[in-house]
Amino acid sequence: DSSLDKAKALRARWEEDKNQKVKAAVQEGERKLKEAVQKAKEEAWTEWEKQKGETWEQQKQKEMQNLFEALQKDKAQWHKQVHAQKEELHREEAHLQKEKAEWLQAKEAAERQMEAIRTALDQFGTEK
User: Fold this and answer.
1) Which candidate, 106, 101, 44, places its Cα nearest to that of 70?
2) CA 25 to CA 73: how far, in whole Å?
3) What is the DSSP letter of 1?
4) For residues 49 and 71, is the Cβ–Cβ distance under 8 A?
5) How far apart are CA 9 and CA 2, in angstroms?
6) What is the per-residue pLDDT for 93?
7) Given 43, 59, 60, 105, which is the most exposed site by the fewest CB atoms within 10 A?
8) How far apart are the first and last CA of the chain?
């Protein structure tokens, strides 16, 4: 049935779009995470050079804490972005489901009209 095929194609296209958006969000999150780690390392090293009086061990501990905080901040931001994108995908899915339901209603109405026309033609043919 072509309507079933169209519905399947619509669903497949929606799934592919959803998967692409999630994949893109993950890649963007990973890129930002790498940038944040590099920036945090550079900032920690600059700070270490300014504070040569601190022991190496203290500085390493501080650097690790800074990295951890930067990573936590980026992780939270990434999760927020992914959540927003998931919400958008859910809205898109609801819209597609509504369009599908409307299309199915229109199809059913057209089928009823065609049946009524056939019945009328049959009656017209028998009345002759």
Assistant:
1) 44
2) 16
3) -
4) no
5) 10
6) 93
7) 105
8) 35
Question: Kindly report the CA angle at 98 between 93 and 103, in degrees rounded to 5?
Answer: 125
35 sits in which H/E element: helix 2-50
Selection from 105, 92, 93 nearest residue 3 by Cα? 105
Please state, as a whole number, how many other Cβ atoms lie within 10 Å of the Cβ of residue 11: 14
**Sequence-ordered list of residues with C-beta below 8 angstroms from that of 114, at least 6 positions apart, any chain:** none
Rounded CA gap, 94 and 100, in Å? Answer: 10
In this predicted model, what pLDDT tens digit does every residue of 55-96 receive, in sequence order?
777 878 899 999 999 999 999 999 999 999 999 999 999 999
DSSP 52: T
Predicted confidence (pLDDT) per residue in 25-65, tens digit: 999 999 999 999 999 998 888 886 777 766 777 878 899 99
> How many C-beta atoms surround the C-beta of residue 114 within 10 A?
10
Render 53-78 in DSSP notation, one character per residue: TS-HHHHHHHHHHHHHHHHHHHHHHH
